[in-house]
């Protein structure tokens, strides 16, 4: 059974939405079992967001956060420690890589690791040229159209 949605008919009548269709296709390919580490996405204000990840046992040096175009990548790599023989290992300390697709103009503001929670603050900053602007309706006279001088008709 095929679970993939065919976006081909939409390509015929839309221009510039290629990235959106590719994003929708890529979400179908995500593995259902990829749930570690757990995370929350919080909208803190109109254009501000926060990602909180539970990364107990990881230090600042074990974590790497990078933003490449519209993708935020969080990697955790912990060196193996030989503290002794584990009889039970319930605290997950395995390496991970978590990817977040970001909308256009979303930038990482800062990141902090406190009490085993990695907090990444994001802000959407729309450039001034792309913001809606109000056009004032004035009572100034329109410029008179230019006339092209040509041969004058003789009556």
Q: What proportion of the residues form beta strands (DSSP E)?
A: 25-35%
Overall structural domain count = 2
CATH class (first level) name of the largest domain: Mainly Beta
Number of DSSP strand runs: 7
Widest β-sheet, arrangement of strands: 1-2-7-6
Q: Helical percent range?
A: under 10%
Rg over alpha carbons:
27 Å
Task: Identify low-pLDDT runs.
Answer: none
By DSSP (H or I, 4+ residues per run), the number of helices equals: 2
Structural classification: mainly beta
Mean pLDDT: 79
Along the chain, the helix and strand elements come as HHEEEEEEE
Tell me which CATH architecture of the largest domain applies here.
Sandwich
Name some characteristics of this structure:
Immunoglobulin-like; about 160 residues; ACD_IbpA/B; mainly beta; four-stranded antiparallel sheet; elongated
Structure description:
By secondary structure, the protein is mainly beta. The protein has helices at residues 8-11, 18-28, and strands spanning 39-45, 48-54, 63-68, 71-76, 96-101, 106-114, 117-124. The protein has two domains: 1-30, no CATH class; 33-81 and 88-129, Immunoglobulin-like (Sandwich). It is built from two helices and seven strands, in the order ααβββββββ. It has a four-stranded antiparallel sheet, with no helix packed on it. A three-stranded antiparallel sheet has the order 3-4-5, with no helix packed on it. The model has no long low-confidence stretch (mean pLDDT 79). Belongs to the small heat shock protein (HSP20) family. Keywords: Stress response.
């Amino acid at each position: 059974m095929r679970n993939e949605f065919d976006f081909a008919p939409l390509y015929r009548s839309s221009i510039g939405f290629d990235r959106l269709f590719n994003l929708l296709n890529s979400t179908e390919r995500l593995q259902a079992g990829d749930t570690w580490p757990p995370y929350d996405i919080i909208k803190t204000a109109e254009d501000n967001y926060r990602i909180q990840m539970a990364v107990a046992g990881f230090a600042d040096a074990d974590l790497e956060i990078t933003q490449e175009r519209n993708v935020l990548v969080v990697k955790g790599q912990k060196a193996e420690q030989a503290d002794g023989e584990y009889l039970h290992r319930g605290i997950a300390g395995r390496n991970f890589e978590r990817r977040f697709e970001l909308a256009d103009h979303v930038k990482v503001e800062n990141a902090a690791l406190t009490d085993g929670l990695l907090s990444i603050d994001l802000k959407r900053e729309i450039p001034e040229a792309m913001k809606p602007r109000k056009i004032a309706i004035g009572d100034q006279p329109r410029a008179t159209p230019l006339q092209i001088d040509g041969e004058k008709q003789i009556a």
